[in-house]
Amino acid sequence: MGYKKKTLILAVIAIILTMLYIFYDLTGNIGYVLPRRIIKVIAILLTGGAIAFATTIFMTITNNRILTPSVMGLDSLYLLLQTVIIFISGANSLVMMNSQINYLVSIGGMVVFSLLLYQALFKSEQNSIYFLLLVGMILGTFFSSITSFMQVLIDPNEFMIAQDRMFASINNVNTDLVYISIILFVLLLIYMIRYYKYLDVLGLGKDMAINLGVPYNRVVKHLLIIVAIFISMATALVGPMTFLGLLVVNLAYEFLKTFRHSYILIGSMLISIIAIIGGQFIVEKVFTFETTISVIINFIGGIYFIYLLLKENKSW
What we know:
By secondary structure, this protein is mainly alpha-helical. It is built from 14 helices and no strands. It has helices at residues 3-23, 30-62, 74-89, 94-97, 99-121, 129-153, 156-164, 175-196, 199-202, 206-211, 216-238, 244-256, 261-285, 293-315. 38% of the residues are buried.
């Protein structure tokens, strides 16, 4: 079976699960329940697409299917920003109470951090992409340490609010945030069009890409900024999902058996949507909201990550 038919199968499964999630057990006040479910589905589409696109691009740039954008420290930075806001101004501050302001501050903080980081790292053409990974891992660990330290010092009630930010949740997505995310997502896709043509060549490696005429440093810098904004948007919208990108992109490569990014991007997005909708359906109907979707995805993704490490170790 070709990758085109496989992509179509993924699309059909995603549509079926989406319809099942929207209309299954649709009782009570339909005028209230149905719009809320549709908003959740839109949030899932945005989150799944953003994480899938960001991770696919990042893996292509690094030419490694184990490394993900989370190593840049963006997930840790998001949690640090939320904790710092609570630590300085309290849980009842305008930034925490107004979800739109909190959303924009979170995205703005992570994007500014990314721009400053990339400006410093790519100022010299001698800086390797692996130097970026090393710096990202160090910063991620540093952010996590500062977050834990601050959470110990804040009031226990405010600590619970900070803890809630650490787990992805689609149940309390704000409608206004979804609308803002739609605009941001579309703008990113438009901006990404000019660099999309380089992805297949970048997948061949840095030296080959340069030999084929790709302005490597400039293209990689802009693609990494796109990655950062995608991850920032997804994290600020529903919260961190550490292993989702690793899981869906690797499954897309394994299932589609192609390296053409036109199909890998779509396939990984569809698998991401299937994973999130399926996980959310299990959270609501099986576990009756006693757990979060991030727990399920990170559990499965963590096991798959260990499998990839063992597989890579055997290849060595």
